[in-house]
Amino acid sequence: MVYAIVKMSGRQEKVAVGDIVVGNRVEGKVGDTLELTPILLVDGEKVTSAANELAKVKVSAEIVRDEKGPKIIIMKYKNKTGYRKRQGHRQPLTRFKVTSIA
């Protein structure tokens, strides 16, 4: 089985052809393709991590859709003063589909 470890949105993800991966929001329209930076490539029994060999490897992904992550609630509270603050956050995300590892 061929798979790669790619650097995406400040994180490392294990991807294979046909996988759907969620990462931080990327500029682009649905259907656009982008190149992901490989850090490691496993091709059957051979493991490639040398920088000069990885420069030849291209991992392509297609943007499937933009979405938002789960709601995170942030609470601030100070005892005996009546201070309470509630804030929410939803991280903007992009869903990718890996199309090729070559």
UniProtKB/TrEMBL annotation:
GO terms for molecular function: rRNA binding; structural constituent of ribosome. The keyword Transport does not apply. One of its GO terms (cellular component) is cytoplasm. InterPro entries: bL21-like (IPR028909), bL21-like_sf (IPR036164), Ribosomal_bL21 (IPR001787), Ribosomal_bL21_CS (IPR018258). It holds the Pfam family Ribosomal_L21p. It comes from the Bacteria. One of its GO terms (biological process) is translation. Keywords: Ribonucleoprotein, Ribosomal protein, RNA-binding, rRNA-binding. Part of the 50S ribosomal subunit. Contacts protein L20. PANTHER family: 50S RIBOSOMAL PROTEIN L21 (PTHR21349), LARGE RIBOSOMAL SUBUNIT PROTEIN BL21M (PTHR21349:SF0). Belongs to the bacterial ribosomal protein bL21 family. This protein binds to 23S rRNA in the presence of protein L20. This is Large ribosomal subunit protein bL21.
